[in-house]
Design goal:
The complex is a heterodimer.
Chain A lengths: L4 E3 L2 E4 L5 E6 L6 E7 L6 E7 L2 E4 L8 E4 L6 E5 L8 E8 L7 E2 L3 E5 L1
Parallel strand pairs in A: 2-11
Antiparallel strand pairs in A: 1-3, 3-8, 4-5, 4-9, 5-6, 7-8, 9-10, 9-11
Chain B lengths: L3 E4 L2 E5 L4 E7 L3 E9 L5 E6 L3 E5 L2 E6 L4 E6 L8 E9 L7 E2 L3 E6 L1
Parallel strand pairs in B: 2-11
Antiparallel strand pairs in B: 1-3, 3-8, 4-5, 4-9, 6-7, 7-8, 9-10, 9-11
């Protein structure tokens, strides 16, 4: 069974530029999560989808971050415009059900200069 | 929000030694998961264990929900066990998200 796929693996941009990350969850997993992990800390949830609906986006900085999950499968997370403090690893995870065991992708390491 | 404290923050072991990692949390939970983040950054789910005891090879975990703690046991440690171990919990009420602790950084030396 294929795991959670993410791309790109690395991205370097300058502040005020925009960037997008892509995630493909494990087949059949209805719930998809985007996390931000800053160096030395545990992951922090940004947004959670159940199929193509948003369940929780309370910690998403909505002035610059947006996410969508069209057709309830793949998802895209966008940052526009990026700030220096957005430098982090962006992790996508999926689970079979809302409070189920979560499986993570390899992450995208973003550096904002 | 719920507080998650993991101890110790850092641990160095000789290969073959055993260890116990602890996770304390400040509220009732119905979701608790243990993860291992390897040196390349990949997060691997070890256990989904809101209560009770589970074992998987050299790893086992116990959660005592009524006393608000969970333990992860690593026996006969190997160098490949190195990395950061995270405990993550979600409160009983509603659809609250997983909150991660700061992790325990484990280094196993040959």
């Amino acid at each position: 069974e294929a795991g959670v796929a993410q791309s790109p693996r690395y991205k370097i941009i300058e502040k005020r530029q925009s960037v997008a990350f892509w995630c493909n969850p494990i087949s059949g997993h209805a719930t998809l999560y985007w996390y931000q992990q800053i160096l030395g800390q545990g992951p922090k949830l940004l947004i959670q989808f159940q199929n193509n609906g948003v369940v929780d986006d309370s910690q998403l900085p909505k002035d610059r971050f947006s996410a969508e999950r069209l057709k309830g499968v793949d998802s895209t997370l966008k940052i526009q415009p990026a700030k220096l403090e957005d430098s982090a690893v962006y992790l996508c995870a999926s689970s079979l059900e809302v409070r189920g065991q979560q499986f993570f992708g390899p992450g995208t390491r973003l550096t904002v200069l | 929000g719920i507080q998650v404290e993991q101890s110790p923050p850092d641990l160095i072991l000789q290969e073959g030694a055993n260890s116990t990692l602890r996770c304390n949390f400040s509220d009732s939970v119905n979701n608790l998961q243990w993860f291992h983040q390897n040196p390349w950054g990949q997060l691997i789910n070890l256990f989904y264990i809101p209560s009770g005891t589970k074992q998987n090879g050299r790893l086992s975990a116990t959660t005592v929900a009524t006393e608000r703690y969970s333990l992860l046991y690593i026996s006969s440690s190997q160098t490949t066990d190195s990395g950061v171990y995270f405990c993550a919990v979600a409160r009983n009420s509603g659809n609250t998200p997983l909150v991660f602790g700061k992790g325990t950084r484990l280094s196993v030396i040959a």
